[in-house]
Amino acid sequence: MSEWLIKGFYALVSVTVAAVYGLLLSGIIARTLARSQGRIGVPVWQGFLDVFKYAAKRTAISHGVMFYLGPVFRITGGIGTLLFIPMLYGSNVFGNFHFAGDIILIIYFILFGALGMALGASEGGHPYSAIGVGRGLAQFTAFEVPFALAVISLAIQYNTLSVYEIVAAQQGGVASWTLVTNPLATIAAMLSLLGSTGYSPFDVVGSPQEIPVGPRTEFQSDFISLMQLNRAIFAAAKLVLYMDLFFGGATNLLELMVKTWAIYMVPIAVAAAFPRYRIDQSIRFFLRVPTLIGIAAVILADFLFNAS
Prior knowledge:
The structure is a single chain. It contains 12 helices and no strands. The chain has helices at 2-36, 46-55, 65-83, 102-122, 127-158, 163-168, 178-181, 183-196, 221-246, 253-273, 279-287, 289-305. 46% of the residues are buried.
């Protein structure tokens, strides 16, 4: 019992650190994008203010139980994703939970949040919610294809589906990183990351110039707070996952921040340079070049690593 209590405390620490880091990143990125567009932008601590402000509000509107479970499922998916990703390799506090094949569970947790949000928003009955949900699930399916192919390539290369073991296999230095040993899988996954972060040109769900806030149109008060908090946690979880799978993981918090920041700058640089796609353009993009690169990564990994 005491061991599980300690594990639970460590998990709480990991979630707290990820939430704080994600909220701070959101403020810095918002200000960075604003400056690239010639604006001043919001304060870097705006995310913290929004979470507390919305959490203090209440609403008398009711749309049914499922409507309110949407944000709950969403944050459950974000926290579940984070808890099965080792934030720091070899750390007792930030090692989180891991077992053989845990990357399959992580992918399911990522999908769990998206489906929960779709079910919740669809019960609101607002047409913008339906539009946002339809776009979100269509784009989600498209950008998950190259990521899944990259994961299959890594499974062939490292002969495991454990994130912890994949990180362990990359501890020989930069030359051991997946970035070097399997660049095609890394490229396919990084192109998938452009869609999963939700920045331009792939911000088709919220579509700020077209529909106000997509599936979040009717959510308000503390439900918005949950969604803001999940956005921070989920962003941190995805960055740590990419760092673990393709960039050697991290053994201390400074290394984690430097690597995840560098990874995050890729979609941010693209967002600053390109306008938003239509949903059909976005889906075609992910099912063409990134998917072909992912297929090539699987074939090459099978040839190189199974042949030996």
